[in-house]
């Protein structure tokens, strides 16, 4: 089937055959239009993108007959640049990496993973957070508490207890028992065995909550009662701003 200007019903599904496809291919990727060659799309035979055009996959077409791929079109241009000239993108690295994973373009995936942005995220930050017990679950718990407190309010706060060592965890529990607050509403992070500090973890918490679309800030939480040690060694207030 050669690609022409002949109009076809929106969303029609077609089974491509290698001998029927034109060497020039028009694509609609998430609303962005691209023109390339069949050989470019099939440059890496083991990739999901290549398999789409081997004659085995069922491909959808838009009303103009262009093959439709339901992915973010903005970043597909970087995928094409790599397929055409082996040019590794230097912009939108995180987003292009997601697309490279989707299309399963292994050489591009490996090169992006060597970039400072992806290397730092996968090897450094994510490996650290994997050593913090229940990190992802605690992020979700923080958000649930903040949303529950947001009724008729511009801001809501969540108290977080951060402890790096087992000894600090015990001291934190002593402090928590003395605080005038609902202990169930305090989210505890740690302890962990890794180099990053408490301030590093606090930055990670803020980064990952903001990545979910929330506007937050944090500061040490100073309890009104006196302790044998400073309460702000462990307790921090995360402030969610809703409007």
Automatic annotation (TrEMBL):
It comes from the Eukaryota. Pfam families: BTB_2, KCTD_C. InterPro entries: BTB/POZ_dom (IPR000210), KCTD7/14_C (IPR057890), SKP1/BTB/POZ_sf (IPR011333), T1-type_BTB (IPR003131). SMART domains: BTB. GO terms for biological process: protein homooligomerization. Residues 23-120 form the BTB domain. This is KCD14 protein. It comes from Sinosuthora webbiana. The lineage of its organism: Eukaryota, Metazoa, Chordata, Craniata, Vertebrata.
């Amino acid at each position: 089937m050669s690609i022409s200007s002949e109009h076809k019903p929106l969303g029609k599904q077609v089974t491509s055959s290698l001998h029927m496809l034109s060497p020039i291919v028009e694509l609609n990727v998430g609303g962005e239009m691209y023109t390339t060659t069949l050989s470019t799309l099939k440059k890496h035979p083991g990739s999901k993108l290549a398999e789409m055009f081997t004659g085995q996959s069922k491909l959808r077409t838009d009303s103009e007959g262009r093959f439709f791929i339901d992915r973010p079109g903005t970043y597909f241009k970087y995928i094409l640049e790599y397929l055409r000239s082996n040019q590794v993108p230097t912009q939108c690295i995180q987003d292009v990496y997601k697309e490279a994973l989707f299309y399963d373009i292994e050489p591009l995936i490996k090169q992006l993973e060597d970039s400072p942005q992806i290397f730092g995220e996968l090897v450094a930050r994510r490996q650290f957070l994997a050593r913090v017990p229940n990190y992802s679950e605690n992020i979700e718990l923080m958000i649930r508490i903040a949303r529950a407190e947001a009724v008729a309010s511009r801001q809501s706060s969540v108290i977080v207890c951060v402890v790096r060592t087992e000894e600090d965890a015990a001291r934190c529990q002593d402090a928590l028992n003395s605080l005038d607050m609902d202990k169930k509403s305090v989210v505890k992070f740690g302890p962990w065995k890794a180099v990053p500090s408490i301030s590093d973890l606090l930055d990670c918490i803020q980064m990952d909550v903001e990545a979910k679309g929330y506007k937050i800030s944090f500061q040490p939480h100073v309890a009104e009662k006196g302790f044998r040690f400073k309460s702000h060694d462990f307790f921090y207030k995360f402030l969610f701003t809703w409007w």
